[in-house]
Amino acid sequence: MPVLGAALAELGQQRVFDGLTIGFRLHLEPKTAVLVEGLLAGGARVVAMGNEGTTQFGTAEALAEWGCEVLDRPGDGKGAVLAHLSRIAEAGPDLVLDNGAELIEACVRAGRSPEGATEETTSGAFRLREGLAGAVGFPVIVINDSPLKAIVENKHGVGESVVDAIVRATNMSLHKKRVVVFGYGWCGRGVALYARHRGADVTAVEPDPVKALEAAMDGFDVAGPDGAVRTADVVITATGRERVVGYELIETMPDGALLANAGHTDAEIDVIRLEREAPGELVAPSLYAHELPGGRTVFLLAKGRIVNLAAAGGTGNPIEAMDLGLTLQARSLAALATSGGDFRPGPQPVPQMINEQTATAMLESMGQTPA
After folding, report:
1. Count of domains in the chain?
2. How far apart (Å, rounded) are the C-alpha atoms in residues 279 and 299?
3. Which residue(s) pair with 289 in the sheet?
4. What local confidence, expressed as pLDDT, does residue 264 receive?
5. Residue 196: domain span
6. Is 221 helix (H, G, I), strand (E, B) or coil?
7. Residue 68 to residues 2, 21, 40, 58, 330: CA-CA distances in angstroms?
8. Distance CA 360, CA 255 (A)
9. 263 and 325 in one domain?
């Protein structure tokens, strides 16, 4: 990860994070561990937690050996996740790095406002701008608003890794399969693109008419949810919203349809009701068969969790994509640590200077020379 490595070396020499406590909520896996290692080397105290079902505990053990306070334990459920969020908030972190805005929300509820925070995801941006609108009295740099993250990490990183994870976990070929992608944001664009590269016929379900038109102009079919899923072989959610694929919709899917989620939240597919109405049986690593009333069966990958990390063998986004995304995180945290007073309270985009600096560094790491 040359771009992130260079940024962390520079920030470490400047002692930007020296003596600061950083509340860290991000998927704990080898790539994110590089960022944690750099923060620790720069003098920070890091209190970290991952997401339910995606923490790689070998990585968590290594982080603990390096001095990171890792809260995750094998078998943690939603109750433990809430407890970890509260524990980090009560620690009064100076900076917060979040993934879904749940840690930011915990800090607001505890009355422990950090100097600033970053937010990684689409779903977290929705939470900040809707449920937490007007309640966040400190600056939050939304990494997801960066055009770099949109293009490199979301479109190409998520798109490639989600399709790859589905193929690997199921051993299926996508050639001439009908793949239905819910959401034509940056992640949905990438999933549709890489599914087509694998030979799939792709339909986009997108309520925004502008994005739906873009999907059509990109060469994909566009349909409403009901019509799209009736002929679907694979259904992939990528919206950042909850319950976009409800149980009533699942009931209309053909026998053998496969469901997977590419978004941060594990509630994009209504797994709770699916389990209640048609309990799943594990038939292969991370693959559950749900027999619906009437005898048809649908398959669910990784219990609806983010499939490129939670499915068996999933390794998340390509390392090059995360090299860029985590550099945006490191430099945004540094900007908050050194110039927090220059930012207004509430969610806001990554400063353009950081975007340009990071884009130039990534081009150079690819052997390309910008004009």
Report:
1. 2
2. 11
3. 281, 299
4. 87
5. 152-310
6. strand
7. 22, 11, 7, 14, 16
8. 49
9. no
pLDDT at 124 over 90: yes
Same domain, 121 and 174: no
Shared domain for 295 and 332, answered yes or no, is no
Q: What is the pTM of this model?
A: 0.92
**CATH code, domain carrying 245:** 3.40.50.720
Distance of CA 42 to the CA centre of its chain: 26
Inside any domain, residue 303: yes
What DSSP assignment string belongs to 278-337? Answer: S-EEEEETTEEEEEPTTS-EEEEEGGGSBHHHHSTT---S-HHHHHHHHHHHHHHHHHHH
At 301 the pLDDT is 98
The one-character DSSP state at 152 is: I
What is the identity of the amino acid at 119? E
Q: Is the pLDDT of residue 370 over 80?
A: no
Q: Which residue has the tokens 């982080």?
A: 63
The structure tokens listed for 369 are 């020379």
Task: Provide the residue count of the chain.
Answer: 371
201-205 and 221-222 strand pairing: parallel
197-27-303 Cα angle (round to 5): 65
Verify that 64 and 183 share a domain, yes or no.
no
> HSE on the CB side for 121, CA within 13 Å?
25
Residue-wise burial string across 301-328, b where 16 or more C-beta atoms lie within 10 A, e elsewhere: bbbbbbbbbbbeebbbbbebbbbbbbbb
Strands (E), the chain: 21-25, 45-49, 69-70, 95-98, 116-119, 139-142, 178-182, 201-205, 221-222, 234-237, 258-261, 280-284, 287-291, 297-301, 346-349
Domain limit, last residue, from 288, 310, 332: 310
Distances in whole angstroms, Cα of residue 11 to Cα of each of 6, 94, 140: 9, 17, 20
